[in-house]
Design a protein that fits this description.
The protein is mostly beta strands and 681 residues long. Helix content is 5%, strand content 67%. The longest helix has 25 residues. The chain starts with a helix and ends with a strand.
């Protein structure tokens, strides 16, 4: 480390220690007047015939917030947690942290540090230390740019012999934001370095991102112009190798998506940026699926070569849970049409140094020339749950090389024009071009052109027309082109009746040859029959032709939906859909009082039946009970499941929570529970 940087680091650390120490001394006299102390504790133990040995968990937390002046804020936190499991080591974690911030009209400065020590009775002890500083400007002059600068360091070690963990990392980042009239500018720089002493390897990553955006309206807002240009470069280099002669480099993912989707061959998913944010500790909202559901995890890797995927969980997974999980993998070029990945994978579950579990998916053959990669997770009957903290793609090379680099560059150009020549008519054009290149992937360019019009003459005539063309060029492959035409007609026939008619045509070209054509027409009618009784009917026809194989496919589907509000406390609904097979769906919501509500639903198809019911009962002002029951029947199996959640707030300081779950099918009958006691002051 350079002497100047070491001096700055020492100075900032001493500032933090001094500030916190002075604050604690200040607490001793007028403590209650200027400081806020918060204490809480939690005791929990799961039980049942599916969770294995007895487990007891305890956690205690103390936090202090203090504002010596209006411009200075100081806070500290101390967490102590233990986990005892029958037949296993006792694990104890001590984690103090502190932060001080200074805020005035010119700038905001924050300095924070944290330490986490995990000890096991007869196992490996782990220590994590980190500190960070952040400086940003508050000056509000519109001619002065917004500046931000951040620096942080992290060290992780354990006392195994030989050591399994000994890493040092530092991160430096900064940004400049500037706005002038209709122009906005942003520049961001980041640099990180990670040294692993256990295998004498080092990974360094740095990158730049610049963006300019312009927006302007003319002719009394009848003409709107928008344009932007974004340039991103990311350079990573891994040096050294582990004992097996392997070098590993993390890939840069442009986006991460996740969601429950039981049709993984088609469709896009919601964005979940936290799923790929290099934070392996913090749990996301994405968790293991329920029985019968499929969890889809997607990374946009933009043609980068990879041969390993890592999925990190927020807790240990038992061997029984690992055996219940089933994985499949898909690739896509457009995040809509997916094909199963032909490369066979192997999956290993590993215990991370924080005690949690990760799934390492290894492909013996590298996967190339795919824009998106999808992992689909399904589970057999069981009661274990876990949240995912990170989804990561890597390239791993085994051989004599002592370094591997990945230089990634992307550019995006966007321009749009919207014109309203007269009040009922709107015309628009949008252009988008994305280019990505890497020394470990092919050069690719995606162009999108969209022309649209919208005419609203009256309630009886609303017409929209659009033309869309996507061109996908990948170096070494034939150009893919999709061209689609669409129209939409809407009308309010009566005050309580709406009608719509939609149609699309899609042509796909592989090179200069048109290989696929698709047409679809749909219509819907919704009406209010009488007050509190509404109905909706829809019909869809589609046809697709493969010009290469001369195969032709047609489909027809229709739906009918009826919703009735019998009274303010009772709602009924019925839904029927047909496409090759029919599906009936009926539901009931009964809310007799503010303390009690009941829902029930039934879904029937030609091959399956599913019944669910839920009771929410607020027994008293402090006692809440939720009960759920499920029965699912198919040609091969019948599954039953039930859950009870009971919470009791004994006082404003003490609360008890009891969870019970039961599951049964033809081969498994299991139950489990969790008792949790929490104290807050």
């Amino acid at each position: 480390m350079p002497p100047m940087l070491r001096t700055i680091k020492t100075f900032l650390f001493l500032c933090l220690v001094t500030a916190v120490s002075l604050s604690l001394l200040h607490f001793s006299a007028p403590f209650c007047r200027a400081a806020l102390l918060h204490l809480n504790g939690n005791w929990s133990t799961p039980f049942g015939d599916d969770d294995g040995p007895w487990v007891m968990g305890q956690a205690y937390n103390i936090s202090v917030n203090h504002d010596p002046t209006a411009a200075i804020k100081i806070n500290g936190n101390l967490r102590y947690a233990t986990k005892e499991q029958q037949g296993d080591d006792k694990t104890a974690t001590l984690a103090p942290s502190a932060a001080i911030s200074l805020n005035n009209d010119l700038f905001r400065f924050t300095l924070s540090g944290a330490l986490s020590n995990q000890q096991r009775d007869s196992g490996t002890n782990t220590s994590n230390r980190n500190w960070s500083s952040n400086l940003s400007t508050n000056y509000s002059n519109p001619l002065w740019p917004k500046l931000r600068l951040n620096y942080s360091e992290t060290n992780s070690t354990n006392d195994a012999s030989p050591a399994r963990l000994n890493t040092d990392s530092n991160n430096l980042s900064g940004s400049i934001d500037y706005g002038w009239h209709f122009i906005k500018l942003r520049y961001n720089y980041r640099n990180s370095n990670n040294i692993d002493q256990t295998d004498n390897s080092e990974t360094q990553t740095y990158g730049h991102a610049a963006n300019i955006h312009m927006a302007k309206t003319l002719f009394h807002d009848r003409l709107a112009l928008n344009g932007s240009y974004k340039f991103v470069t990311n350079n990573s280099e891994a040096r050294g190798a582990d004992s097996g002669g392997r070098l590993t480099i993390d890939l840069t993912a442009s986006a991460a998506y996740a969601g429950i989707d039981n049709t993984p061959l088609t469709g896009a998913l919601p964005l979940v940026p936290s799923l790929n944010d290099q934070d392996l500790e913090t749990a996301t909202s994405v968790g293991l699926p329920s029985i019968g559901d499929s969890l889809n995890l997607v990374l946009q890797i933009n043609l980068q070569t990879f041969n390993r995927l890592n999925v990190y969980f927020d807790r240990p997974l038992t061997t029984a849970t690992q055996q219940r999980l089933h994985w499949t993998f898909y690739s896509s070029q457009d995040n809509d049409i997916w094909v199963p990945l032909a490369v066979i994978s192997t999956i290993d579950y590993q215990e991370e140094d924080n005690g949690n579990t990760s799934a390492r998916v290894t492909f013996p053959l590298a996967v190339t020339s795919v824009r998106y990669i999808k992992a689909v997770v399904e589970t057999d009957p069981g009661l274990d749950t876990a949240l995912i903290t990170e989804f990561q793609a890597q390239e791993q090379i085994t051989g004599t090389e002592n370094s591997i680099s990945n230089d990634y560059v992307s550019q995006n150009i966007q321009a749009s024009l919207n014109y309203q020549p007269w009040q009922p008519l709107q015309l628009g054009y949008n252009f988008n071009q994305s280019t990505t290149d890497s020394n470990r992937s092919a050069l690719s360019t995606q162009d999108n052109h969209t022309v649209s019009s919208h005419l609203n003459l009256s309630r009886y005539f609303i017409l929209s027309l659009s033309l869309n063309e996507n061109i996908d060029k990948i170096e070494g492959l034939k150009t893919d082109k999709d061209r689609s035409y669409a129209f939409s007609y809407q009308a309010t026939l009566l005050d309580n009746m709406n009608f719509s008619l939609n149609g699309t045509r899609n042509d796909h070209y592989n090179g200069s040859v048109k290989d696929r054509t698709g047409d679809s027409i749909s219509t819907s009618l919704s009406t209010v029959i009488i007050p509190d009784l509404t109905a909706n009917m829809s019909y869809q026809w589609s046809k697709s032709i493969n010009h290469v194989t001369t195969n032709e496919a047609k489909s027809n589907s229709y739906t009918f939906n009826l919703m009735a509000r019998v009274n303010p406390r009772l709602n009924l609904s019925y839904f029927y859909s047909y496409s090759e097979t029919g599906t009936h769906n009926a539901s009931l919501l009964y809310h007799p009082s503010e303390l009690l509500s009941f829902t029930a639903s039934a879904v029937l198809t030609d091959t399956t039946q599913s019944y669910t019911s839920t009771l929410n009962w607020r027994v008293t002002r402090k006692i809440q009970a939720d009960m759920n029951y499920l029965m699912s029947i198919d040609d091969h199996d019948t599954t039953y499941g039930s859950r009870l959640n009971l919470s009791w707030h004994l006082s404003s300081y003490l609360s008890v929570r009891q969870n019970l779950a039961w599951s049964k099918n033809d081969t498994i009958d299991s139950w489990s529970g969790l008792l949790s006691i929490s104290y807050n002051f």
